[in-house]
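Posting this for the archive.
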Amino acid sequence: MEYIPVRVSDIVRQANRDLFLPAIQREFVWGTDRIERLFDSIMADFPIGSFLYWKLEQKNKDEWPVYEFVRDFDGESPHNNSASMAGITRDITLVLDGQQRITSLNVGLRGSYRYFYYRWKHTYLYLDLLKRPIPNEENPEELTYGFSFRETGEPDPNSHQLWYRVGRILDFSEAEDAKAAEEPLTSELNEEDRQNANKLIGRLHNKIHTVTVGNYYEEKSQDYDKVLQVFVRANSAGQPLEYSDLLLATATAQWDTLDARSEIHGFTDVLNETGHGYRFGKDFVLKACLYLTADLPVQYKVKNFTRPNLRKIEENWQTIKDALSLTVRLISRFGFHSKNIVAPLVLLPVAYYLMKRGNMSFDSSSAAADADAQITIRKWFTFVTLKNALGGSTDTKLTRMRDLLRTADSAGGFPADVLYTSLEIEPQLNDNEIESFLTYGYQGRYTNLILSLLYPDRDWSASQFHEDHIFPKSEFTVRSMRKRGYDDATIRSYMEKFNSVPNLQLITDSENLSKNATPFDQWLATRDTAFKSRHLIPELDDYSFDAFEEFFMSRRQLIASLLRGLE
């Protein structure tokens, strides 16, 4: 294997001209801190690793989908643009390993980084020319040089800074010219600061234009299977790829009229913007493509994404989108959101049923048959999720349910009983399950779902609801309870209970903000008359902190009774 040395200026000059990305690459995921650290490593003479290129011959360049490196990263639209190969009559190079680093160099030197932190910020990479590059021996993780993404080059108030836009270094072939261009600013500095600024400009120029910062190996095989193996091995030690990234490459190359990558990325974004938001991944959408297309195997394996199967998915794509969109709109109406959709694959049988039913306005229908089916779907989804019914052998169970749904009469309602039997579960919760659910803690995997069951008549579309400690969390400290005169046994009991379901409720974001750490007895006095029944609050004579144990046990019984009655 021959490794070829490369300079930073070579890399950024070739990006999107000779260097491109294959569809199998994930998108850019580095934050500003990682980019700053990369530039700091270059300035400090630390190695930044090697790169793996694939030389794609000109005769084969139209067989594979190709994408550009990001130059101006935008957190609202992070996807890579397709690269046009029209007019290119030479071999091109695709990057198999090193995309995050090359994109970071491109963003830092030629582009910008837009992200949200309290507000949207459009930033550029700067270097503080007045910072002394002194390594911190006690904390080697601390940056040696003053790289920072900033909106402007204006110094922070009351700070001794001189910010240099890093990308300016590309404008000069000679370091002395780069220094001379900054003389209007550096000439006003004292001698020590001026020397430091000129030294940093010179060093930056040297590291970008002269020094070879890494090496690349070029794979020349035109065998796509071999290249895929090389890619997987090269990336196995880095950030894990979603399996969908590899499958999307295959799909993109073999769809006839649509760009699979663009379609699936875009549709995943649309799903995640439904209601108050979700976190479905591309893997979920691709799995649905298999599940909702007739006669395709469910297993999520490369061998199932053959050319004939992909053509079937492409032909069925609009139907798949319609069924998944309807399903997500429906569960959003039910109050299921990103925090309580803990098993997304449970949605696939629902989507299959809705696709077969064919009524794309089912989620808003008030017809008696549709309303009954909606109630049944909600209960089925809840029980299957809480009981972790897919568990192991997920594909086998999903396939079995799809076969049952295929032969069921969709006009007769959602066949929940048949599916319960297939999954070998009962449509109710037993005492052991309920006891377990009541121990779930604040923001646990299933906690939000359990709490949502306490509000069967709530309009979930109106607001976002937060998990909230009924008796405020801030009151449960050993120090404060000792001040109250509680003995060790009482303190231990309080600490064991306060963070679990009986002391939790779902309230709106505005309620949560106004409640803050107000003691519960004081907060309760400000609530409307239906508050207690709405939140399953027991009727007690005392709601002070001293009565927490009684409150906890009483509400625990109320919740257990409600869960026991679900069917």
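Residues 242-427 form one domain. Residues 477 and 495 are 8 Å apart (CA to CA).
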